[in-house]
Amino acid sequence: MMSKHRAACGSRRQFLERAGLGFGGLAASCLLAADGGSAARSNPFAAKRPPLPAKARSVIFLFMHGGPSHVDTFDPKPALQELDGQPVPESFRSRDFQFTKMDRVPLLGTPRRFGRHGRSGLPVSDLFPRVARHADDLAVIRSCYHDGFTHITGQNWMNTGWAQVGRPSLGSWIVYGLGSESENLPAYVVMLDGGIKSGSPAYGSGFLPAMYQGTVLRSEGPPILNIRRSEPADPQRQRLLMDKLEWFNRQHLARRGEDTDLEARMTAYELAFRMQASAPEVADISSETGATKALYGLDSAVTRPFGKQCLLARRMVERGVRFVQLYSGGGNSGGSPGWDGHNQIDYNHETMAAQVDRPIAGLLQDLKGRGLLEQTLVVWGGDFGRTPFTDGSEGGARNNAGRDHNPYGFSVWMAGGGIRGGKAIGATDEIGLNAVEDRVHVHDLHATILTLLGLDHVRLTYPFQGRQFRLTDVGGHNNLASRLVAG
Amino acid sequence: MPLLATLVALLAASTDGFAATPGDAMGVLMDRCGGCHGQAQIAGLDIRTREGLLRGGSRGPAIIPGNAEASLLYQAVGQEGDLAMPLESDPLPREDVALLKRWIDAGAEWPSDQVAAAADDWWSFEPVKRPDVPPDPTGWSRTPVDRFIARTLHSRELIPVADADRRTLVRRATYDLHGLPPEPADVEAFVRDESPEAFEALVDRLLESKRYGERWGRLWLDVVRYADSGGFETDIYFPDAWRYRDYVIKSFNDDKPFDRFVQEQLAADQIWPDDIELRGSYDVPEEKLRNLDARIGTGMYTIGTVYHEAALNGHQLRYEWLVDSVDVTGEAFLGLTLGCARCHDHKFDPISQREYHRLMAFFAGSEIRRVPAQHKMSELGYYSAYPRQLKVFEYQNAIKALESTVSKRLEDSIAEGFDAETVAAFRVSRAKRTAAQQAKAAVLERALTEAGLRENPGGRVPELPYTQQERDRRRTLVSKLGEAASRANFELPTATVLGSAEVRYPVRMTHRGDWKSAGEDVTAGLPAALGAHAKPRTAGDRRALAEWLTDQRHPLLARVMVNRIWQGHFGRGIVGTPNNFGRQGDRPSHPDLLDWLAAEFVGNGWSVKAMHRQIMLSSAYRMASAADARNLQRDPGNRLLWRMDRRRLDAEGLRDAVLLVAGTLNPKMGGRPVLPPLSEEERLGMWNLDAWPESLNPADHNRRSVYVYAKRQFPYPMFKTFDVPDPAVSCGRRAVTTVAPQALTLLNSDFMLRSAESLAARIADAGDAGAQVGRAWMLALSRPPTPTEREHAAEMLARAGAREFALMLFNLNEFVYID
Q1: Which residues of B touch A2 (CB under 8 A)?
Q2: Among B61, B330, B567, B785, which residue's Cβ finds the most Cβ atoms within 10 Å?
Q3: Closest Cα to residue A66, out of B460, B689, B813?
Q4: DSSP string covering B50-75
């Protein structure tokens, strides 16, 4: 028994080392895979038992591209309403924003109404009437912050825990730590709704091996890049190609003796072949009932695009995909603002919220109905929040009624994954500018997510540039996991 | 046994089968324990000698030779018992714990009772000492390189495998030096050449080809984090980056002495100053031109990431540029990751935060500048470019016209959904509408606004219903526009280089690397731990830094570069972490060999080509990649080089090999980056579709990969799939991964299908199926098929057609891996 495991680790060691995984990564993988047996030998994605007790098995991260306003959605600020139109009080004026100087713009109250919802009475604005019905499942973290006040730095912070490009994304770390539960689908899937400003680094593997990067899945058309040819292909010929390829590769291998690299590449072809069947299957929603489709808003042109993403997300976590990230508000024209309401934010947010409210509520309800919500952590957030004063890019005139980016205090909510909802954690100041109570840095958010998945954010490391890197760098001290799961 | 101990034991038993060498154990001890238990002797423990360990500290002996389990040191680093070490730092990696265990169990042998390296004399900071070449009584050795390797192999009772056969060798050498497979005729010529100098002649021939610079230039571009755009949201285009790329390729082809190459990149403008910033058209002496060529080398410092959208704050941009400049200098030339010291004193290497800032100060007097890159630009030539500028407007207008046609159609189709009265009201010009008409028209206006067809508060952009034909036309127009713009000569040709800044801002200490927290001023200066060998003649500018770095006595520059060259031939350096020769990096597997090569390198006038010859003519380089059960057991990772490691082609090598074998490779060199077409699917991941204006000339689609547009926010998808590194920072060694999307790319992408078609056409006239197979095999695999292979392949060719057959060839492990 011992020798068997030793052999597995020995050949894995070579394999991983040549695969660029290095020593630290190897040790972690080997330890994590100690119970993985033979699966671990051939497949670096084999599911690994988390080192700590896990609440959640998968994550669905709903990313509102452009930066949704917290003071208009999940963080009511009565004082801001009273001060509407007044200059920003002196005591707040020490922050940098991309377009705005704080001494030149007036405060801007929200035109939205906040209601108290569920047994918990959690406040949610009327931009999210349907999500509000799930108030008792939501834990709103109102004191999030980082310091990236432009889109790319904001998206990098939220996705990779660092402002600059080059760090692995949250999903990559998770798959590196936990492997995949699916044999036929990528472990980490991203749906973009077009392109996103921060581009592929937002779902890239940074300095982790590229196999941990997110795979882009499209909700319409061929779901995965090159999953099939752009022209009709003859399945018989393709089958023959695969068979012959296998035959020649076996001959090649036999002439050379054991070589884990060559074997791994043959395995990758088998997986690719299975994916050609399973990826279209997961993207094909014809087997879903009309009621389910309606739940996600597939019956309306407004809600259909994001609704389909949400439905596919459920189908994927059902099939063992570990990390799914959905973007609302991407585009291909270089001009779609998404949630980036620099002008007329109310019009912007009303438009955007109308696209996602029903799908997100549908997702929560559907996951719950299928018993998946307990093991699926749903996270809602964006690049950052928005300022409580008007945007300064057009001179800060009151009539543009928009809001600039605000990374210094904003809201993220989580649901499912063992979380007991109906609560708000932390607080911004009276006007919603800075996180002041129970401050939760992005590192803390990430630490929380990793902990809920059973990973130790301090020990999940990878050696790079002479250092053991962590997703949470040297932070993550305000880990909310135990408070989120407590009643 | 506790779980952890069990696992540690398993791992201990499962690692390479190496005995732990005393040197390794000393390394771990000094790295991780030496800070407190070295000179400082905290708790009375001094780990620098075997005596010290046996004597131990206040808790008693640290080690009991032969019994790790009972040794306090092992218990402490294994985090067992009440003493867990190191304090306030990450625990040791499992393999280091295992290594210490093996070393203690084996008797804790210590080479001699010398004191282990003190904190500031780490091996790589010591001067290079040219070691004596050891003898090799076995006769295996061809060159001095082999004698070093043979000695280590011998000491571990490893036996090198036999030479590779000629076909393998020519393939290996051609890929290594050109990044391409050999042409069949060259393979046959080499196989037939029976002269003992055949291989030497081959290497010389390969080194003379211009293909060499394209391959080795690309490797260097990884090291200097080359890209054609600045990254982040704006991802600004660097219009002159390609000149630096061409400069690199040419430098390798010319075998420019490496010290000169370094000097040029760091400080050509200061070492060979001139006033090249000339506008207009007059003659310039040749020397000035040469100096300009050299100065393009400083382009290295103009191609880093630019956080352009933070341009509201020039100070931040400047600070980030200084940081990037120091970091890339450290990794590329010193093989040290200095970045840690931006925020605090380096924890492992002897670089303080102050010293890091002092390095920044070398760059503080400099700025990025565009200078004319052409000495004689006649006025006539300049103004004759005017019609080409008109072309730009022509295409811009054509795109606008197309967009407005499609917008109009969308508008009409929206209007169709309304009653005739509303549409009629809408058609009346706004000023002439009655109130009733205005009310009716407003409804339609709102619908148009929501569709993004009118200026709208959300800034919504319409989704225009292009037909396929219109979409294609728009793409062509965008390509034409891109092409026209690049030919338009809006300005004189320029190069982007470093120059002296008009205003020299002081460099100030920061708190934890935050540019806003300016502390005291810092002057330029060299790190004390590295600076012992030489004092630069000049002070304070990049020139001084360049002189110091390229001083023959510098401990790092030559070692770091020969290690990179070695890695290019063996897949792994003598030091496995080419960008980190510090304490957190790997130790050299063959320290004497590394030093000998470094000394040779300097002795041969820093000739990179001479170093290739030195390495490639060895027996070590010529070994087969064969397995050997006995050796595998003793050294499964092949760290000691008893065979050649099998290597997968890198992204560029793979694409270029496909193009060459398909017969479509366009060998044209240099110039602006080229943009091969993307499939519709590939384009969908882009934030802005217009950011990839496909090259108009189809011949440019098949240029070598080193010339493909390196866009930071959107790397060419095939490259990304095959592990091209993110050029955010220097990359010393690429990861090699094997994943399913690679298979999908090679099986289904448009590029591969086109290439398979070309190969199919190329072999069509070879004769019958058997002959076609033979031709294809020679082109793709550099060998004839065996009779059984020929039979299987011919059968497939008949049943699946030539294209599928060609595609299969491109997917073979034998095509993608080099023995």
Answers
A1: 10, 13
A2: B330
A3: B460
A4: HHHHHH-BTTB-S--TT-STT-HHHH
Q: Give CA torsion, residues A413, A415, A421, A422, to 10 deg.
A: 50
Residues of A in contact with B584 (CB under 8 A): 463, 466-467
Q: Give A319 to chain B, closest Cα distance, Å.
A: 18
Amino acid residing at B140: W
A255: contact with B, CB 8 A cutoff:
no
Q: Could you write out the three-class secondary structure of B225-286?
A: CCCCECCCCCCCECCCHHHHHHHHHHHHHCCCCHHHHHHHHHHHHHHCCCCCCCCCCCCCCH
What ipTM was reported for this prediction? 0.77
- What is the C-alpha to C-alpha distance for residues B443 and B450, in angstroms, rounded to an integer? 11
The pLDDT of A111-138, averaged and rounded, is 97
pLDDT at B277: 53
Closest residue in B to A271 (Cα–Cα): B740
Interface touch A228/B748, C-beta < 8 Å: yes
Checking if the pLDDT of B336 tops 80, the result is: yes
Among all residues of chain A, which has the CA nearest to that of B711? A199
The confidence score (pLDDT) of residue B312 equals 58
Nearest Cα neighbor of A68 from A345, A332, A308 is: A345
Tell if the CB–CB gap between B735 and A347 is shorter than 8 Å: no
Span B753-783, pLDDT tens digits: 999 999 999 999 999 999 999 999 999 999 9
Exposed/middle/buried for residue B130 (C-beta within 10 Å: 0-12, 13-18, 19+): middle
- The mean pLDDT of B703-726, rounded to a whole number, is 92
Q: Across-strand partners of B647?
A: B818
Taking CB atoms and an 8 Å limit, are A258 and B627 in contact across chains? yes
Burial (CB count <10 Å: 0-12, 13-18, 19+), residue A121 = exposed
> Percentage of residues in chain A with pLDDT exceeding 70?
89
Lowest-confidence range among A425-434, B450-459, B515-524, B597-606?
A: B450-459
pLDDT for res A71: 98
Between CA A335 and CA A343, with CA A338 as vertex, the angle to 5 degrees is 80
Identify all chain A residues contacting B95, using CB atoms and an 8 Å cutoff. 23, 26-27
Q: Which of residues 101-140 of A touch B (CB under 8 A)?
A: none
pLDDT (tens digit per residue) in B57-85 = 888 888 888 888 888 888 888 887 778 88
CA separation for the pair B403, B756 (Å, rounded): 37
CA distance B166 to A26: 36
Give per-residue pLDDT as tens, A225-272: 899 898 888 889 988 999 999 999 999 999 988 788 898 898 889 888
- The least confident of A114-128, B337-351, B653-667 is B337-351
For chain B, give the mean pLDDT.
87
Q: Which helix (H) or strand (E) holds A27?
A: helix A22-32
Q: Is A252's CB within 8 Å of B814's CB?
A: yes
d(CA B563, CA A102): 53
Cis peptide before B144 (omega within 30 of 0): no
Length reported for chain A: 487
pTM check: above 0.90: no
Name the pLDDT band for A212 (thresholds 50, 70, 90): confident
Structure tokens at A57: 């098995």
Are the beta carbons of A322 and A59 closer than 8 angstroms? yes
> Is residue A215 within 8 Å of residue B741, measured between CB atoms?
yes
Answer whether A299 touches B (CB < 8 Å).
no
**CB distance B737–A227 less than 8 Å?**
no
How does residue B281 score in pLDDT terms, banded at 50, 70 and 90? very low
Q: Residue A191 forms beta bridges with which residues?
A: A326
Closest by CA to A36, choosing from A187, A181, A185, A174, is: A181
